[in-house]
Amino acid sequence: MRNIYVTNTPLQQAKEEWRKALADCGFFNSAPSELIKVDDSLGRLTAEPVVADNSSPSYNAAAMDGIAVHFGDLSGASEASPVILSEDQYQTVNTGNALPDQADAVVMIEDVHTLENGSVELIAPVTPWQHVRTIGEDIVATELILPENHRIRPIDQGALLATGVTEIKVKCAPKALVIPTGTELIQPGETAKPGQIIEFNTRILAGYLNDWGAVAQGSSPIADNPALLQEAIQAAAQTNDLVVINAGASAGTKDFTASVLADIGKVIVHGVAIKPGKPVILALVDNTPVIGLPGYPISAVLTMRIFVKEMINEFLGVETVPAETIEATMSRPIHSSMGVDQFVRVTLGHVGKNLMCTPSGKGAGAVMSMVRADGILTIPSGSEGVGAGEKVSVELLRGVNEIESTLVMIGSHDNIIDLLANQLHKNRPSIRISSAHVGSMGGIMAILRGEAHLAGSHLLDEETGEYNIPFIKRLLKNVSLKLINLCYREQGFIVLPGNPKNISTFKDIAKSGASFINRQGGAGTRLLTDKVLRDEGVDPEEITGYGHEEYTHMAIAAAVSSGSVDTGMGIRAAALALDLEFIPVAEERYDLIIPEEFYSDEKIVNLLKLITTDEHFHKTIVELGGYDLRDCGKVIYEQ
Amino acid sequence: MRNIYVTNTPLQQAKEEWRKALADCGFFNSAPSELIKVDDSLGRLTAEPVVADNSSPSYNAAAMDGIAVHFGDLSGASEASPVILSEDQYQTVNTGNALPDQADAVVMIEDVHTLENGSVELIAPVTPWQHVRTIGEDIVATELILPENHRIRPIDQGALLATGVTEIKVKCAPKALVIPTGTELIQPGETAKPGQIIEFNTRILAGYLNDWGAVAQGSSPIADNPALLQEAIQAAAQTNDLVVINAGASAGTKDFTASVLADIGKVIVHGVAIKPGKPVILALVDNTPVIGLPGYPISAVLTMRIFVKEMINEFLGVETVPAETIEATMSRPIHSSMGVDQFVRVTLGHVGKNLMCTPSGKGAGAVMSMVRADGILTIPSGSEGVGAGEKVSVELLRGVNEIESTLVMIGSHDNIIDLLANQLHKNRPSIRISSAHVGSMGGIMAILRGEAHLAGSHLLDEETGEYNIPFIKRLLKNVSLKLINLCYREQGFIVLPGNPKNISTFKDIAKSGASFINRQGGAGTRLLTDKVLRDEGVDPEEITGYGHEEYTHMAIAAAVSSGSVDTGMGIRAAALALDLEFIPVAEERYDLIIPEEFYSDEKIVNLLKLITTDEHFHKTIVELGGYDLRDCGKVIYEQ
What we know:
With 639 residues, chain A is of the alpha+beta class. The first copy, chain A, is 27% helix and 27% strand.
């Protein structure tokens, strides 16, 4: 094995070295052009200035319905002394008709009085070329229609065709190939065995390359074999303007990309001080740019965005439009290392006066975190992070409009929330729900800090046996709000079908040594777990895995389903969703906390209308199993 | 002929009646869906919520390169009492590998000390699931990936494929047909005889329909014949979701669209109080929306935008994102009629502190005015117009960025300006020139009002024989500026090849009775014309057509070329461009006036660099003919 040394090149320096290498190898001068029909040119870039072949209009044309006349014939016409024109002195014209040879003005039809013999009587003079579109009025032959490097719109096609231009030279987009590497890769649709990975990165990367103006394709996966990889890269460099390799950029035992590129080409940079994306490789093979991306999808996309998006624009000769950004307020601190540019996926929500920014990512492998993200926050290398309440500038992944109309729900997780989000968005496409699953207590704190429009909560007060209200009175005493019931739901042990470990109490778990998976502190389900443990007189220390925490009911169910653990506490809907068995322990109340300031917010109004009146929605929830909607929409408490 | 009555329905009322008719006929509930491969789904809209088929990751996976261990084996490990694991107690894993059955944590390779016998020594304990991506960490099977009505991005495709979804239901775009009507229409590429019109509107209209989310096609032109039109509309309504007819909406002798629609369907509105676009027809045929648009391209596009764009979105169930607008200051007044919503094409330019807004349109037939427009200004029906200096909100047709980097040139027209604009845009894609041809005096006034970055001028002062400087001293005395030469150029009579009327002086013109075409007042060429007339002692009254004014050299050349007039005064380049003959009269100096406040503006710096140093640019100008660049770039005067 060749020893690969991954450097920590500062981002700005890496970009400059990369740009210089591309300029030196002629990448920015290589955009070819092709002659195509104007009919097929929508969205393409002109490769040269385009001038008019003919003038438009190409003849003097009537600009009104009326009669074409010679202006000299009407001089002196007035009500007192009308002028009569015989049939051979005028011609009836519709808008767009060519003027006859001697005519040089048009009289509107409304001003023409036709006599019985076909003559016309006119009572006002005209000016020369009145109501006439003169030849070349819009554009004269040889004048510039479109400059070079102009992206063709429908109106441009019209102007080209109007002036006789039917074919134009347009630039060809750079051709790109994405090469996935890894023996463990299987194709979408195949069933993954443990250790196998569905190869989806290529679709993501090729999709973005196409979005950015390239014509990108993906190749079949190349196994982890340096000889095969070398062959694939050399072939790709011959027929493409740009090659992207995913992955093998790092220094693991099967990471051959860097050594292969060093053998057959020139590595400009290997290792950049960014997070995620550090092991990226920027190289040239036969003067073709080759980029080795990290394997995790989020790292790959963010890194490609930094090193490829602008170079495609420069290849085509178009300006890179700066990404749309928005100023937001951090809802919680993020730490970052000095010397590293960090890119953080965030969600944004306009709650009250503030646009709040919250980190959404759990790891570079989490594709859904990017699906759900509203923007990317860059923490520059000179900073150690940003604090809660600090103002930050976020690069948007969605339109401002979409962000402004997002209902921010933070708190306990329930499977109904997905249904609610979908149905609300379907009824009112402008409304979107962004939900963060941080547990009931996290939701109450978000309401206190003004970060959420509403919170889902099912916190049981042991002393009173009452749900939510005691916590609200204690923690939200200064907030005017309503507590509105969403549902009652069953909580219990989620186990494999047939309940192989015969679990129905915590005592059973402790006795059998079965492994448990817990919810995080502050979750309503955690409070319930701890209460049931105390009621049963079982010490948490007796429960294997009590310290192993997950954040949602579905994560608990997934762990049980995979066999990683024997059981965990969760709602019936989560067990049913994954065909697991459910041992009921308690019914609990799940409420929505809504501050008064949002009662009249259109998004809240629509949400409440949906949960109180939509029968289809109710029916769908009942079908999930484990829910009772007897109080759905009822105001439980108000302060 | 049926008598067609075109109403003057207020815009808001017309929109409401149209929307209600579409809702009543089920148009908004009719979007069909189709099952397609995720690979082909980029940019499509989900027709139903999409949930994960499998969890992702689908197994517990190493999140680091290292060794997989059972966390219990390392309890109590420390530097003082290291733990030794034998080869069967751990397994080497790369990032992404599946954890072996008993393993529940990963130790990073950097923290592993491998002994000679293959055992490893570890000096720290681990927490359960450390450096492990647990099953379902990203998403659990059955959880929502994408809601209904979501437009699919590359990252969404990745999330779908990662969770085993390979096919999804997406909405089908509405099918639209554009039917051009008119016996006078010929196809692009054919040579237009007088009275014939190249049929280009269909490409523009279908292009915008596709941009807005429809799948639009154009049909062959239908002659002006009610029976043929009726047959075409009825056939189109059977197989399309939407039919657009262009034109015949008005009440001319060949305008059959309204009467045909009344015969075979229901006309909802015919005639709306908008300008342009008044005669638009909104109708239903067999419950299919049919829109009759006016014939002029600008009227057709603007009207279709009002009545079709939103309905396509509502058909698909997506929100109509409000058009991007910007606040600007009117550079001159626009009058409008009370009771009519007027839509005005405007150009925008950031000069000094103000974003100036200037009407650009010459008429609804002028396609180039829309090609050049930066935005659309709406003057609502309750207003009589806007005054100079008033703030207005303009709907953008280009990105803000493009507008901000536009160099605004107002003043005299020269063919070099096109070349300059093209070359500057090519060298620096971010820079664009917007040039308005209003004559030299108009340019000086624009500089005075702070509306232009620079002005082109060739004003001859009769008393001193000096160009430009006397006018600057008189009219711009308080403005610090430089006067920089662009070129010397020949002015003269433009005549048909062979000079059939033997014109070489104004005396010749007066004597022969040849027809002349003049430039507008305030144009440098008009001053020259008047001076030469006085020098020759010819009275303007003796010149036929002295009162017929055009605004550019090319318009003069076009009029001569078409035979409309015998001659006019213009520059040699204009004559040569249209293969006409040129009779020289004078050499004149053409200068650029640049106020001091823009000397360091990046756009001006680039322009001056181009005209002073670019040899290719100089060569191209000399090839145009009639130019002398002996002082090009030289500062002629400074104050």
